[in-house]
Amino acid sequence: MRFAKYHALGNDYLVLEPQDCPQLFDVQAIRKVCHRHYGLGSDGILYGPLPRQDGSFGLRILNPDGSEAEKSGNGIRIFCRHLLETKRVQENQEFKIHTPGGIVKCTVFDGGSRIRVEMGKVSFRAPEIPHVGPDREVLGESITVAGKTFKYWSATVGNPHCVILVDDLSPDLAKTYGPHLEVHPNFPNRTNVQFMKVLDRQNVQIEIWERGAGYTLASGSSSSASAAVARKIGLVDADLTVNMPGGKIVIGIGADYSIVMTGPTTPVGVFEMHAGVPVQDITL
């Protein structure tokens, strides 16, 4: 069984192709493979390409806790890089990837070091996120976790996000409060969490707690949701850069809050698990 590993600004994924693993292994095995000390180590597994009658490339996204994500901006860019590396797509060619969170249009440039993804439209409406309560846009509401109350904005770009605006930003905010916000009852499917500081009209900075993965150096969907929230509040222009611990992603926001995300990817290597060897005995 072969795994191709890539990272997008430090957010790393393993790509596992169905031809190498026709039946995806169970939750415990996924956790073992993704474990930083006992497995190959990653922020998730990208399982694909899966056959699609519409000509797009099907993709499933598995979190390191074994749960499944609807969409991942960095994961999608990494999968695009893998499609280029395996000669399924060419540079400057637009193609589609089908995820549980919707179909995205993608283009690879500069040998895969720059990849553009049309992420779809951001919605702030409670039923679409999903978020508890009546049908409304979840904007600037209060939430209390671990004895602290925050004002938050909630959004979906195919997966749920909770964005909190702060004046003083640090990794500890995400690490301390992210785990509690992720599982707050307001979010029936849990949520990704971003603490955001607006630097100027063209730049925001975020710290990320990713649903099912934990503290994360970068996230494409988090960048998209945070930028959309900052735009919704009126604090940024339509084109901006999201700054994260792992690096920068460029976001373009349409009048309808459609998102175009552009960022880099980097190959790490290819790893194999020998036939008949249990997942827990993977050797690098």
Q: Could you explain how this protein is built, in words?
A:
The protein is an alpha+beta fold and 284 residues long. It folds into two domains: 2-113 and 265-281, Diaminopimelate Epimerase, Chain A, domain 1 (Roll); 121-263, Roll (Diaminopimelate Epimerase, Chain A, domain 1). It is built from four helices and 18 strands. It has helices spanning 27-34, 73-85, 171-182, 220-233; strands at residues 2-8, 11-16, 45-50, 57-62, 68-69, 95-99, 102-109, 114-121, 141-145, 148-156, 160-165, 192-200, 203-210, 214-216, 239-244, 247-253, 258-263, 266-272. The chain has an 18-stranded mixed beta sheet that branches. Strand 10 and strand 11 form a beta hairpin. The two termini are 12 Å apart.
